[in-house]
Amino acid sequence: MIATVSKNFFLYLSQNKGLNQAAKKWGLKFGAAQVVAGVTIEHAMQTVKDLNEKGIVCTLDHLGEFVSSREEAIQATEYNVRTLEAIGKTGVNSNLSVKMTQLGLDIDKDFCIKNMCQILDAAKRTNNFVRIDMEDYSHCQVTLDILRELREVYGFDNVGTVIQAYLHRSLDDVKDLKGIPLRLVKGAYKEDPSVAYQDKPVIDKNYMRLIEEHLLSGSYTAIASHDHHIIAKVKDFVKKNNIPNNQFEFQMLYGFRTELQQSLVKEGYKMRVYVPFGDDWFGYFMRRLAERPQNVSFAVKGFFSK
């Protein structure tokens, strides 16, 4: 009961626009620096370089979502383009992840697609790949529609997306997205029981079903989980089904389970770390606190260290 209240509380805070705006002026507080790689592109490049030296590849995420003006969305687009250019210039090994609400999706769909095309053009110039993050359920279908349009109408093959295992629809989506690189996650938003599973054992079971479906279809699969039980099951599954290591990768968030990350690298698996950065960190950090009660220790330590 306490865990549920705690989760709902942090999810509520993550959607508070006033607190999100205030946090931009605070700098990284409450332990957020342990899970957010600084506020500038330069900070992000150094973090990726450090991780690369440990055998870990990355995906960078310039934090921000739910923008309310075209000017904000254009600035976010330009910042993402500069991030791709910095990746190319420094030679670090990192992809880019983007949220389409940051690029104006809630303002105008065509405007958002135009911004996505700018980012994907920059990714092509720098020989890189862009992952469209999946947001809350209200943005799920339009995200998949835009992904299709970017790939089939505009001809971008350097773009994929994320599927969340807690949604009832996800198995059908994975089947429909055969051949497209996917990051598979459990899901981190508060969703209604009418569209999402609520119980962890059910979500875990569906998560494995999605992983197996996408791998068996021959599609490149990113398994994004800190759950060592899930990771062990994936290892067994790929061995039993003769799935080569270059068809999948494990992914984890920056600042979490670093010893497990290194262990997977030593075992010869591709390990990618999702590295968020930027001053719009509050919503991301609150969702990390909501996901697991253990994560609250970040906030407690951060609060008392100030």
Q: What report would you give on this structure?
A:
The protein is an alpha/beta fold and 306 residues long. The protein has 2 domains: 1-36 and 281-306, no CATH class; 42-279, TIM Barrel (Alpha-Beta Barrel), CATH 3.20.20. It is built from 12 helices and 8 strands. β5 (182-185), α8 and β6 (221-224) form a beta-alpha-beta unit. The protein is globular, with a radius of gyration of 18 Å.
Topology of this structure?
Blueprint lengths: L1 H13 L2 H10 L14 H12 L4 E6 L7 H21 L3 E5 L10 H17 L4 E3 L7 H14 L5 E6 L5 H7 L5 E4 L14 H17 L4 E4 L3 H13 L7 E6 L4 H9 L4 E7 L4 H10 L4 H9 L2
Parallel strand pairs: 1-2, 1-8, 2-3, 3-4, 4-5, 5-6, 6-7, 7-8
Helix pairs in contact: 1-11, 4-5, 7-8, 8-9
List keywords for this structure.
12 helices; 306 residues; alpha/beta; TIM Barrel; 8 strands; 13% strand; EC 1.5.5.2; 8-stranded parallel beta barrel
